[in-house]
Write a structure and sequence with these properties.
The complex is a heterodimer of chains A (about 270) and B (about 425).
Chain A (H helix, E strand, L loop, with lengths): L2 E6 L2 E8 L3 E6 L14 H6 L3 E6 L16 H14 L5 E6 L1 H12 L4 E7 L14 H4 L9 H7 L6 H6 L7 H18 L21 E6 L7 H10 L7 E3 L6 H4 L1 H13 L1
Parallel strand pairs in A: 3-4, 3-5, 5-6, 6-7, 7-8
Antiparallel strand pairs in A: 1-2, 2-4
Chain B lengths: L4 E5 L11 H4 L14 H4 L2 H15 L3 E4 L13 H11 L4 E8 L6 H14 L4 E6 L3 H6 L7 H17 L4 E3 L6 E4 L13 E5 L3 H10 L2 E4 L6 H16 L9 E9 L3 H19 L22 H9 L14 H7 L2 E4 L1 H15 L3 E5 L7 H30 L7 H5 L2
Helix pairs in contact in B: 3-14, 4-5, 5-7, 8-9, 13-14
Classes of the chains: A alpha/beta (about 270), B alpha/beta (about 425).
Amino acid sequence: MSGRTLQINERKVWILETGKGAPLLYFHGFADVHSVKESWMPFHEKLAQHAQVIAPAHPGCAQTDENKDIDIIEDVVFHYLEVFDALKLTQFDLVGSCVGGWIAAEIAARHPEKIRKLVLIGATGLFVEGALIGDVFMMAQPEYGSSYASLREMLFSSANQPNALEMFPDGKGELEDEVRRYQMLRFGSRIGFKPPYFYNRSLKNRLHRITSPALVVWGEKDAFVPRSHGETYAKLISGAEELKVISDAGHSVHVEKPDEIAKLVLDFLAE
Amino acid sequence: MKPVQLFCWHFMAYPYLDKDFDEKQYSGWVTVPNSLWDNRKARGLYQEYIDQLAYADELGFDGMVLNEHHQNIYGLMPSPNLIASALTQRTTRGKIVILGNLLPLHMNPMRVAEEYAMLDQMSNGRLIAGFAPGGGPETFNYDVPSANTREKFWEAADLIVRSWTEDGPFAHEGRYFPLRYVNLWPKPLQKPFPPVWIPGSRSPSTMAEVAKRGYCYFLSSRSHGGETHRAQQEFAAVLEKHGDQYHPFRFGILMSTYVAETDQQAREECEEGVWYFLKNCLKGHLRREGRQLTYGPGVPYIPTAAWREYLKGYTPGRKLLGDVENWEELDASQSIIVGSPETVHRRIQNLIEKAKVGNLLIQFQLGNMPDQLARKSMKLFAEKVAPALRHDSLKQFTDEFPGANVEQAAEALH
């Protein structure tokens, strides 16, 4: 693992970097590096065999300083414009999962020239009538004193999925893992609690501005972001292929099926 | 110096749940299906509860306490100000304590400033103005993002007090509630402004903010073991750090009691209401059964560093008040003090002695407790317990806090 701190306008931004090749920015979601894990997971390591993977922790996550002035997704977009400048990145591949996918889509709609290729995995961000994004905040409140089964069920294909149990155990997990999970919920609540939950009503009508090729991937059993959101992304981004659905995986498809999804992403990036 | 102030707190529970509620329903909060509401039974319920509060005023309690809850069976007061408004016209003597309006849930704090000012005028200066940030359930009630709740809360509270004390119109250039014209009509009657009470659960930052502003700190815990005494000591230390001095009326606690002729009779009469309260009303709030909404990572309102400290001492699955399994365990928690006048006096007196607390906010009606029992308990308390508590506490406070000026607000009243 190699991590470092960027200094941006008085605030520290924590990034992990690995691999060699063309730059690939990775934006994390709820079950991910920075939001639970201190370091890389197999999916990222596979990407790093063919790219220079750079993963910043969102504001307030891991060792990135919190920013109390973040109220809406727009504020996060501007935060990342500063990060790109600090990294001297002008064009790159952008891969986002979950809330990270939302941020990636918002950036791509505003600055299509920066994005070589875009990958969205179980991305939040859209308002799709009749298909609400799940309430991860309520699921994060313990049941029966110490159970997080319903949180695992929302983020994975089942509550007993081994990765799910490892990342979101019942009772008390590793202290720093717990703290990272809390930080991610705190960040998420700034941009995604109201409206409920995790969308920007305007994003749908802006997706046509994305000019790069795009890959949209969903877990077959995603119980957090309904599949119709993936279908909508795939339909409205002109450079997107048809939605790719990975069978026997839930929302955290990159955790549950790292080989399969890494191959899809790498093939797409290599095309 | 004055004796302990005894307030009657009514939560206004929904009392008509079936006996199998706990077995069949997952929660009493936020998601509890409102198909359970039964108009045939509930007609007249508010009248019954308002009458009980008016009765408290007749009995000589120092005030009546109301608070704000939404979407639950625990408290049917989404707007305590409406009940307070009724009380201004039904009562003449006691303070009307609203503890409090949940400021982050209100779109505009000026509405709270205005309604409180109206209530202060309508009650002839009897309002005690509580402001609360709300906790877990409230986060979900109105979809209030929790990360910035505290900042929003204090901005709103400060704006309200400023609007009561500073002549308008003025512009409020706030982070969360920017307003071009702040110009309150009416102004509150009490000068410089109605007493402000703020609830907290021993967080040092809340204590510091309360101390900084000279308000009264109210401990929102329902259990009164050693923690109450520790909270008092912590708050006293914080006050001293801010160049101020503790006296008993800077501090208040919530407790529940039931008084009957004998210990045995008291337990028999209140037990049904008590268990209804613990198992139904607390489900989703102070119970681990179902989903615990009050505190947890899904309502991340405390700063990360404080959360890390909290986690270090946290035991998953620990028992909460509503998880008590039997009467003895409940009794030991000192949350609900049940007994003859002698027993109740002794136990509460003991609490006052240790915690040096001047404001006791007491819940009499618990769960589905029938009207006549709640009234009987209130009457016995007023006649057989309150005089002794007042007598003893006056002596204690006079000895322990010589020279403390406890009447600031009243002296300044027009």
